[in-house]
From TrEMBL:
Protein name per UniProt: E2 ubiquitin-conjugating enzyme
Cited PANTHER family: UBIQUITIN-CONJUGATING ENZYME E2
Zinc-finger is among the record's keywords: no
Matches recorded under Gene3D superfamilies: Ubiquitin Conjugating Enzyme (3.10.110.10)
Organism whose genome encodes this protein: Toxocara canis
């Protein structure tokens, strides 16, 4: 489960800086990234990132949340995917994102815009060497095709509109019963049963 961060108190100078940067998304938008925020609490920033073309996340829309701690911009924000995603650098339980920009490479002048661009780039170029999802990291290195199958499947389930799922989900015709049941659960968004079906389906597809 994603960690719940409490609203933080920042200096008026920092708050004005953040407000100005967030407002810039309206006048100078970033392709594939939309940002929303509450003026009464801009320490929590919500963003939607479109899955980049040519990746297993293409066609999906992924929600991301940034939490600006009390020491921001001296310290990097915390960043989480709130949409479930199969990615080496995203914790499968909490959605926490591991990227150097949020750690050792952070600089106070980078800002929210830079962070969100880096997160979208991470969807294009994962880094299995610093994996939070070890399974995804190993698959990416050892069996890229299988990694793509798993990542696309999770994208179809969690990041696509329900009416787009069936058209984009590629399932072997050799297992029609599993295909029909999985499609039904996708449309119903029954995540508990869907997770079990994903495992069963993946085993059958690979083996």
């Amino acid at each position: 489960m994603m960690k719940i961060e409490k609203p933080q108190t920042h200096s008026p100078i920092v708050l004005r800086y953040v407000q100005k940067e967030l407002a810039s998304f309206a006048t100078d938008p970033v392709e594939g990234i939309q940002v929303t925020y509450d003026d009464s609490n801009i320490t929590t920033i919500h963003a939607t990132i479109d899955g980049p073309e040519g990746t297993p996340f293409e066609g999906g829309r992924f929600n991301v949340r940034l939490f600006l701690g009390r020491e921001f911009p001296g310290m990097a924000p915390s960043a989480y995917f709130t949409t479930k995603i199969f990615h080496p650098n995203v914790d499968p339980k909490t959605g926490a994102i591991c990227v150097n920009t949020l750690k050792k490479d952070w600089r106070p002048d980078l800002g929210v815009r830079h962070i969100l661009i880096v997160i979208r780039c991470l969807m294009i170029e994962p880094n299995p060497e610093s994996a939070l999802n070890e399974e995804a990291g190993l698959l990416l290195q050892r069996d890229y095709d299988e990694y793509v199958v798993r990542a696309q499947l999770l994208t179809d389930i969690h990041a696509r509109p329900p009416d787009a799922v069936v058209h984009n989900l590629v399932i072997s015709s050799q297992i029609p019963s599993q295909r029909v049941e999985l499609q039904q659960q996708l449309l119903l968004r029954d995540n508990t049963k869907t997770d079990k079906l994903i495992d069963e389906f993946t085993d059958k597809l690979i083996n």
